[in-house]
TrEMBL record:
Pathway the protein acts in: Lipid metabolism; sphingolipid metabolism; Sphingolipid metabolism
Membrane association type: Multi-pass membrane protein
UniProt KW keywords: Endoplasmic reticulum, Lipid metabolism, Membrane, Sphingolipid metabolism, Transmembrane, Transmembrane helix
InterPro entries linked: Ser_palmitoyltrfase_ssu-like
Name recorded for this polypeptide: Serine palmitoyltransferase small subunit B
Subunit structure: Component of the serine palmitoyltransferase (SPT) complex, which is composed of SPTLC1, SPTLC2 or SPTLC3 and SPTSSA or SPTSSB. The heterodimer consisting of SPTLC1 and SPTLC2/SPTLC3 forms the catalytic core of the enzyme, while SPTSSA or SPTSSB subunits determine substrate specificity. SPT also interacts with ORMDL proteins, especially ORMDL3, which negatively regulate SPT activity in the presence of ceramides.
Function of the protein: Component of the serine palmitoyltransferase multisubunit enzyme (SPT) that catalyzes the initial and rate-limiting step in sphingolipid biosynthesis by condensing L-serine and activated acyl-CoA (most commonly palmitoyl-CoA) to form long-chain bases. The SPT complex is composed of SPTLC1, SPTLC2 or SPTLC3 and SPTSSA or SPTSSB. Within this complex, the heterodimer consisting of SPTLC1 and SPTLC2/SPTLC3 forms the catalytic core. Within the SPT complex, SPTSSB stimulates the catalytic activity and plays a role in substrate specificity.
Localization terms from the record: Endoplasmic reticulum membrane
Transmembrane segments: 32-53
Molecular-function GO term, any one: serine C-palmitoyltransferase activity
Organism, scientific name: Accipiter nisus
Family: Belongs to the SPTSS family. SPTSSB subfamily.
GO biological-process terms attached to the record: ceramide biosynthetic process; endoplasmic reticulum organization
Listed GO CC annotations: endoplasmic reticulum membrane; serine palmitoyltransferase complex
Amino acid sequence: MDIKSLKNYLYWLYCQFELITCSYLMEPWEKLLFYTFNITMLVMVLYTAYIFVPVHISTAFQFFLHLLGNQHENTVSLVK
């Protein structure tokens, strides 16, 4: 794929985005607010996923290991 066709494809995607969101009807200042809000929400969702998803996966993994009967290595068993 050459540069010109890639540029045309990206422009086509941008036009599709504007048609889907009806942002082509907005004035420039409205577009700025709309895009700023959407980008802010996207960044917040990605940050939240980056922070919390690994914690939940680790917790679920430990839960399923506990269900299967495996013990943690740091648990101390009392032997009399």
